[in-house]
Amino acid sequence: MLTMKKLFLYTLLISSIVFFGACKKSPSVDPVTPPPVVPPTGGGTSVDYLKLAQETHTFTTNNLLTASYGYRANTTTHANNSYEWYNVSQIYADAAMVGVGQTKHLAYMNNTFKFMENMWDKKDLRGGYFASVNLDGTGAGGDKYVDDNALSGMVYLEAYDVTTGTDKQAYLAKAKACGDWLINSGLWDNVYGGGFYWNTLKPEKPAQTNGLTLQLFLKLYSLTGESIYRDWAVQVNNWLNTKMYDPISGLFIWKIDGPGEGIRRTDKFTYDNAIMVEAFILYSKIMNDPSYLTRAQNLGKAMNTTLWNSAWKGYIFNTNETRINPAWCAWGSQAMIRLYEADKNESWLVYARENINRLNIANRNQTTYAYYFFAGFDGQNRSPEIETVDQAWMQRIQALLSKY
To answer: Which ranges does the record mark as transmembrane (predicted)?
Structure first.
């Protein structure tokens, strides 16, 4: 997600299908007249991505950060809710800022990490994060999401990379706890030949959910050397390649649901495939299998064939949606950055930059520096919601781009 919630609680409507999570929100209809769209820079002018990231962070801290150091879901419909994957996405964003030398973000990152304890299930020995709490941290309960917990673990491992001492060890310990909850959650079974369910209600088995668990198991194996994480990584990888890969498009499909053998929902999402690009890059390094770098490159090429809008120069949300979202579409830029870091092919960075440039034109309010939940590629038909997760991902990706 990235992916990826709970509009709401992470409810989404796409083509009359309701779905949730670090990962699937549908656009709302904008009841207000959208503000005028003004490109952030003139033609040919280089973009100061770090400045844009800093401006986004300022908006977030002024409008979304609470006294408890969690973040409200948005400024409109869910201003009194705080969501797990929104909070960890902001930690992810601040970790990226620390990674480019902006050390003041350590305090934001660490304080929100402490707030996250309010969401941890302390009544179940297996633990796991609930999806939502009140702004003061009370009210945790209900369903748990595999993708949210897997993303939380991956975020904490990036925080581990940019911290020291007791903070560093705390991030690793919680990432392991997330991985261990996944293993012991009972949310992997033989239905559809394996795979993790999206959440504790067991409605479906999505690609992004399993892709994020694959990333986490690989990273945990790399850091701890514990074979259980390697074995789970291999198991999840095999299921994804067998059940979720579409050899015709070269992309991963959305999900499997329904009775019996299930129905393969063949919509293609940018962030699903971005997650798998990153997973394959990790697999190539950690499992010492160069063929997976080739697979990541081929998947990136397939993204840029099917999921790229060449007229507007940006990633589509999915193959059935004409508007774009700052979190899920920006995830495509992260995949391109990771490919560049792996093989130094500059063309990946062109896609990464152009995609973010389009989101800055289409979704960014040039006065407040906030990003709208959904907008058309031309910047019209904007949704009114200002979601924390969208601000977080734009802050993060622009911090990453500032290095290049």
So the answer is: none
Show Cβ contacts of residue 78 under 8 Å, excluding neighbours closer than 6 positions.
6, 7, 8, 72
| Nearest-angstrom CA–CA distance, 190 and 284 | 27
Position 272 confidence tier, pLDDT thresholds 50, 70, 90: very high
- pLDDT for res 9: 34
Rounded-to-integer distance, Cα 44 and Cα 379, Å:
20
- pLDDT the model gives residue 17: 31
Burial class (CB in 10 A: 0-12, 13-18, 19+), 262: middle
The answer to the question of residue 3 being in a domain is: no
Task: Please name the residues in contact with 22: beta carbons below 8 A apart, sequence gap of 6 or more.
Answer: 1, 2, 3, 4, 5, 85, 145, 147, 148, 151, 208, 212
Range of the domain at 193: 12-401
* Residue type at 45 in one-letter notation: T
Q: How far is CA 151 from CA 3, 14, 207, in A?
A: 9, 23, 14
Return the percentage of the chain with pLDDT > 90, whole number: 88
In the DSSP assignment, the letter for residue 254 is S
**Predicted confidence band at 322 (pLDDT cuts at 50, 70, 90)?**
confident
374 located within any domain:
yes
Query: What CATH number does the domain containing 45 carry?
Result: 1.50.10.20
Of 337, 341, 269, 347, nearest to 303 by C-alpha is: 269
* pTM for the predicted model, two decimal places: 0.92
If DSSP codes are grouped into helix, strand and coil, which group holds residue 188? Answer: strand
Strand 308-309 with 204-206, pairing = unpaired
DSSP letters, 333-345, are HHHHHHHHHHH--
Q: Please report whether residue 256 resides in a domain.
A: yes
- CB of 266 closer than 8 Å to CB of 257: no
* Residue 7 forms part of a structural domain: no
How many other β-carbons are positioned within 10 Å of the β-carbon of residue 107? 11
Residues 6+ apart with CB under 8 A from 23: 1, 2, 3, 4, 5, 147, 206, 208, 209, 269, 271, 272, 328
SS3 category, 289 = coil
Per residue in 199-246, pLDDT tens? 999 999 999 999 999 999 999 999 999 999 999 999 999 999 999 999
The DSSP call for residue 45 is P
Instruction: Report the distance separating Cα 82 and Cα 90, nearest Å.
Output: 12
Domains of the chain: total: 1
